């Protein structure tokens, strides 16, 4: 895990990478945000374990969970593995709190598979967090959301971002997540960009602004 820990940091972001990537793969995105040095923020970029991925012919790669297919919601994310990953990130949140980072000063962010785990964790976390940022992603176990949504998550600042031309996680899957969150009484921000399954400069500017708003004095 990459742990960027500047002196006097009171805020933290947990960044969760996508399938086949690593924490190191997300580090350039964090650097590109060029967050102000006068607001020191700790960035934690954990690695998913290596596991066989069904849609990739069973080849092993870093992944938070297995994907059998995208046609049915139950195939998009192995629920047992999603819950195990959620436990891993919850443990990281507990560690941060023990080190002096209040939960309300911590954002969970993720891209693609990482966004699935970020949302699954944040929406069930029992104490208020600073925010949830999801990029090019969807919901795991969507039918369980209403029953498992924590009281703390009902006021959670949420931002979803998606590429209009995403051919990996189709835009409709992001819209489905947005609509399910709204049906649960939440109010996610929504941003679309003329891009595929990737990041772009306008999106990075929006990520930067959203994070700064979450950590404003």
Describe the structure.
The chain is of the alpha/beta class and 217 residues long. It has helices at 23-32, 73-76, 79-98, 113-122, 145-148, 171-183, 201-214; strands at 2-4, 11-16, 41-45, 50-53, 59-62, 106-111, 131-135, 158-163, 189-193. A seven-stranded mixed sheet has the order 1-3-2-6-7-8-9, with helices on both faces. Helix 3 (79-98) packs across helix 4. The longest helix is centred in the middle third of the chain and has 20 residues, at 79-98. The radius of gyration is 16 Å and the shape is globular.
Provide a short characterization of the protein structure.
With 217 residues, the chain is an alpha/beta fold.
Number of separate helices: 7
Give the second-level CATH assignment, the architecture: 3-Layer(aba) Sandwich
| Outline | globular
Q: Tell me the domain tally.
A: 1
Instruction: Name the poorly predicted regions.
Output: none
**CA distance, first residue to last residue:** 29 Å
Whole-number average pLDDT?
A: 95
CATH evolutionary superfamily:
Alpha/Beta hydrolase fold, catalytic domain
Tell me how many strands there are.
Answer: 9
Biggest sheet statistics: 7 strands, mixed
Tell me the structural class.
alpha/beta
Radius of gyration: 16 Å
| Order of secondary-structure elements | EEHEEEHHEHEHEHEH
In the CATH hierarchy, the third-tier topology is known as Rossmann fold
